[in-house]
C-alpha cells in the first residue's frame, strides 16, 4: 500500500471534507490509516489541535497521534506557509516534515496527507506543495470544484503533476457552487482534457456529515485502488 496525498486546484475547495471521507472509508474497510497535514494556517482552536482541520481528520480516522507529528507547522494567520513563516520569523525545515511522515508511516498501514491550498502554494522560495508530494512519494488525488474557472485551474494542476511525474489517481469534483458548470458536462470534459478519471462528484451539502460523506465517496470509488 502507498500513502495518499489529497491536493486541490485552489484553497477552500473541500480537501478536508474529502480527506476525512476517505479516511473514514479506509478505517471502515479495516485499514489502519494515519493522517497528516504538514502545514496548516488559520485561527488557532482553543482546545485540541491548533488546526480545526486536524481535529476533523483525526476524528475521521479515529487516531490520536501527537500533534507535532501530524502537523509539524501551524501558523495562526490565514496565508501561505511561505508568507506566514516570513511574517512570523519561523524557519521551515522540510527534512523535519519528511521525518514526521516516516515516523507516522511506521505506526500505520498508510498515511493520508492533506495539503494546503493548491499545488503551487509556496512553502519555501523554491519549494511548493507539489515538491512536497514528490518528496513523500505518495499517490495523489486532485480535488476540484464546479465553479467557473475550474477548467483552467484543473488543467494547469494536472499538467504540473504530469510534468513532475507525480502519479495522480484521478479527480474528485466537489460541487459546492450550484451556479457553476453542470456536473455531467464537467465530468465529460475534464476526463478528456486531463486524460484522468473523474473518480466521483460530490453534491453540495448545507452541513457536513462524516458518515454520509464517506458513504457517498465509497459508493462511487473503489477506495482500495487509491492506495495501491
Automatic annotation (TrEMBL):
Report the domain of life of the source organism. Archaea
> Which top class of enzyme applies to this chain?
ligase
User: What are its GO biological-process terms?
Assistant: biotin biosynthetic process
List the active-site residues. Answer: 37
User: Where does the protein end up?
Assistant: Cytoplasm
Q: Does the UniProt entry include the keyword Cytoplasm? A: yes
Ordered alphabetically, the record's keywords are: ATP-binding, Biotin biosynthesis, Cytoplasm, Ligase, Magnesium, Metal-binding, Nucleotide-binding
Pfam families for this protein: AAA_26
Kindly state the subunit structure of this protein. Answer: Homodimer.
Question: Could you identify this protein by its name?
Answer: ATP-dependent dethiobiotin synthetase BioD
Q: Which organism is it from?
A: Marine Group I thaumarchaeote
Gene name, per UniProt, is bioD
Amino acid at each position: 500500500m502507498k500513502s495518499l496525498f489529497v491536493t486541490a486546484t485552489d484553497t477552500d475547495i473541500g480537501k478536508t471534507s474529502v480527506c476525512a471521507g476517505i479516511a473514514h472509508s479506509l478505517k471502515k474497510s479495516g485499514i489502519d490509516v494515519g493522517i497528516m497535514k504538514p502545514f496548516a494556517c488559520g485561527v488557532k482552536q482553543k482546545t485540541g489541535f491548533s488546526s480545526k482541520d486536524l481535529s476533523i481528520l483525526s476524528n475521521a480516522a479515529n487516531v490520536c497521534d501527537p500533534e507535532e507529528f501530524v502537523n509539524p507547522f501551524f501558523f495562526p494567520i490565514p496565508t501561505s506557509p511561505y508568507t506566514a513563516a516570513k511574517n512570523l520569523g519561523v524557519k521551515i525545515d522540510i527534512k523535519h516534515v519528511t521525518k514526521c511522515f516516516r515516523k507516522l508511516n511506521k505506526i500505520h498501514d498508510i498515511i493520508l496527507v492533506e495539503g494546503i491550498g493548491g499545488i503551487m502554494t509556496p512553502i519555501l522560495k523554491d519549494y511548493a506543495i507539489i515538491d512536497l508530494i514528490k518528496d513523500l512519494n505518495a499517490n495523489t488525488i486532485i480535488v476540484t470544484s464546479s465553479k467557473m474557472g475550474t477548467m483552467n485551474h484543473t488543467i494547469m494542476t494536472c499538467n504540473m503533476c504530469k510534468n513532475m511525474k507525480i502519479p495522480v489517481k484521478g479527480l474528485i469534483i466537489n460541487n459546492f457552487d450550484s451556479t457553476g458548470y453542470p456536473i455531467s458536462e464537467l465530468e465529460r470534459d475534464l476526463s478528456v482534457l486531463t486524460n484522468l478519471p473523474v473518480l466521483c462528484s460530490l453534491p453540495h451539502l448545507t452541513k457536513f456529515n462524516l458518515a454520509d460523506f464517506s458513504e457517498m465517496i465509497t459508493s462511487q470509488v473503489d477506495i482500495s485502488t487509491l492506495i495501491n
